[in-house]
Amino acid sequence: MKGEKLAKKKPELLRKKESAWLSNPAGAVQSFAEDYKGFLAVAKTERSATREIIRRLEKLGFMDIEMMMTLKEGDKVFFNIKDKSVIAMKVGKETDGLMIIGSHLDSPRLDIKPNPLYEANNLALMKTHYYGGVKKYQWTNVDLAMYGVAYTKEGVKHEFSIGEKDDEPRFLVSDLLPHLAKKQMEKTGNEIVEAEQLNVFVGNIPVKDKDAKDKVKMAVLELLNRKYGMIEEDFSFAELNFVPAGTPRDIGFDKALISGYGHDDKSATFANLRALLDSKSKNTAVAYFSDKEEIGSVGNSGAASFVLLDFAEIVVKKLGLSISPKELLVNSKAVSADVSSALDPNFPEVSDEKNATQLGFGVTIEKYTGSGGKYSANDAHAEYMNEIRKILQKNKVTWQTSELGKVDIGGGGTIALYMSRFGMDTVDAGPGVFGMHSPREILSKVDLYEAYKFYKGFFEQ
Fold first, then answer.
1. 166 and 285 inside one domain
2. In this predicted structure, what is the pLDDT of residue 9?
3. pTM above the 0.70 mark?
4. Are 53 and 179 contained in the same domain?
5. Looking at beta carbons, which pairs linking 380-386 to residues 24 or more positions away fall under 8 Å?
6. Could you tell me whether strands 94-104 and 283-290 are parallel, antiparallel, or unpaired per DSSP bridges?
7. How far is CA 144 from the centre of its chain?
8. Could you tell me if 286 and 62 are in contact, meaning their C-beta atoms sit under 8 angstroms apart?
9. Is residue 322 domain-shared with residue 438, that is, in the same domain?
10. C-alpha pair distances (Å), 443 with each of 164, 270, 449
């Protein structure tokens, strides 16, 4: 009898996991994904992402907060940080605390060195220093586009985006052919391609001057000087990046997945942005898009800076609040919107299947991140996790929980710890991806959509 009663209770006792595709209209998911693909195609770097975010904000009536003398309920504003990070806010009725969702705009890439241009074997190349955690061998034989900013000696600013249009050249790092790679293939994965071998091809035609040294390098410099007025010295003061060229593509017969560069963290960024724009709430909602997460959230545009506190000071002053900026942040609640590693059936051994994200099963909620015993993690309190659960239930969000791999396999961090240091409760949440930090990451469209539903529900709670 006791066993029979227990059996009847099983459906209530056990958590039922089901594909998020079964509870969402496919049309809504696909429409949202198409908008995301358009965003991802133009938001390759933190600069281009900031530009696109501000374009979308201004289109819907958001104003630069520094142009506003005061703020009131209903105002929509943004705060531009160095053209690399941005904070957007919709002022609600409740202003003594903020509902903040933070994501990051930067993704792994190849940055040029201060003295990049050189010639070898009648080829012009640029030396690079990889940015963020990468598998170096993945960045060979991949079409690259060049983005960034450079100034001439006279102070003329040039913003670059070369390699995305059909009539533009692309760039590439070569790899060794298998016929001659016997010794290379005996090396460890980290050594197959060395960092100093990530040199990008930029030219091959020499100048016709017989007396010129490094004729191909000189030809490249002459081309850049004719077109942009640049000289070699300008590279030492420039900020130029090589990123994978091309647009996101649907994957699979059913077009359920998206392959593209920068899902980490443009997917959560886009869902964050759309959630803010679409939300209707009495709360004051803030979408924070940070920089430099991939290298530790450093610098004055990263989350480890005091950007949030600076923003809080502006908000307190212009709203005329009686609390301090620090109190405003302590009263706030936050979500760190970032991706998680999904269980890849080709590499199942690195994940704990019972605690791993699965593509297509909804937004991933991560109570903690970090590595080696939760080091460098934010670990959300049970009380806050219960609040998060209520938001998921109320908004009928399909969700799952996850860790980033088995305990001592690896791990990773987000900006959660930098937001929580101001006193606000914080938890990580976002879609899962395959191939994180590679030139072509993969995510499920429905996980992105469920992340959006959760973020919007968070703003509106």
1. no
2. 56
3. yes
4. no
5. 380/425, 380/426, 380/427, 380/428, 381/425, 383/425, 384/333, 384/425, 384/426, 384/427, 385/427
6. parallel
7. 18
8. no
9. yes
10. 22, 13, 11
Rounded CA-CA distance 436/79 in Å is: 29
Q: Does a structural domain hold residue 394? A: yes
Q: Which domain holds residue 94?
A: 8-107+261-460
| Residue 252 covered by a domain | no
Q: Which residues contact 366 (CB under 8 A, 6 or more apart)?
A: 340, 401, 402, 403, 404, 427, 428, 429
Claim to verify: residue 279 and residue 419 sit in the same structural domain: yes
Q: CB–CB of 122/244 below 8 Å?
A: no
| Contact (Cβ atoms closer than 8 angstroms) between residue 350 and residue 437 | no
**Range scoring the smallest mean pLDDT among 178-187, 205-214, 263-272:** 205-214
Compute the distance between CA of residue 344 and CA of residue 210 in angstroms, rounded to an integer. 56
Query: Pairing between strand 257-260 and 441-444?
Result: antiparallel
Looking at the structure, do residues 19 and 79 belong to the same domain, yes or no? yes
Direct distance between the N- and C-terminal alpha carbons of the chain, in angstroms, rounded to an integer: 44
Q: What is the mean pLDDT of the chain?
A: 95
* 203 touches 118 (CB < 8 A): no
**CATH, residue 290:** 3.40.630.10
CB count within 10 Å of CB 396 equals 11
What's the one-letter identity of residue 13?
A: L
CATH code of 236's domain: 2.30.250.10
Which sign does the torsion angle of CA 297, 300, 306, 310 carry? negative
Query: Which tokens go with 168?
Result: 């533009």
pLDDT tens for each residue of 383-399: 999 999 999 999 999 99
DSSP 211: T
Where would I find the H helices in 250-338?
263-278, 307-319, 325-330
Count of structural domains, the chain: 2
